[in-house]
Amino acid sequence: MTHPAPAPDMADLARAVRALRAVVQHQPATVEVGRVCDIVTTATGSVGEALLDRIDTGPGGCGPVIAHDRYLCWLVPPGTAARGWSHPAARCTGEGQFTLPPTTHTAAPYPYWVRRDTGRRVDAGLLHAALDEADPAGTSRPAP
User: Looking at residues 55-83, what average pLDDT do you find?
Assistant: First the structure.
């Protein structure tokens, strides 16, 4: 018996369910950047700590952040890159795939959650303002 191909919107739903199932089972999950979130990448170290401190004290606190080697990956709302979000100290990506670590992975080795996903995204405007304070010239910009 053959099954008909799923409708395009159902294929998106199926991918989302598979990603959610992986997260619930404490496994890495691959998500579609631009649909689930966009990713802003910044440096770790003193700049990253300053960003976390500033955003933690902002309205609503910080959204999800993942440490990956020398970088912090901030999960911002989808469409942030398409709206032209830019800062000399960061890179913003709005397409491709990104692998989320298991929800229980909150310490090294990389990647791990610095701030867990609570269902909301990091406020891109607040992140930009924090970058303006922490590294306005972009000296810590991540390599391409």
Answer: 94
Distance CA 51, CA 127 (A): 7
Q: What is the C-alpha to C-alpha distance for residues 66 and 59, in angstroms, rounded to an integer?
A: 20
Spatial distance between the Cα atoms of 86 and 29, rounded to a whole number of angstroms: 27
Residue with tokens 């469409």: 79
Question: How many Cβ atoms from other residues are within 10 Å of residue 64's Cβ?
Answer: 20
Token pair belonging to 139: 């000296």
Residue 50 is classified by DSSP as: H
Residue 71: partners with Cβ closer than 8 Å, 6 or more residues away: 41, 42, 43, 44, 142
pTM (2 d.p.) = 0.83
CA 74 to chain centre: 4
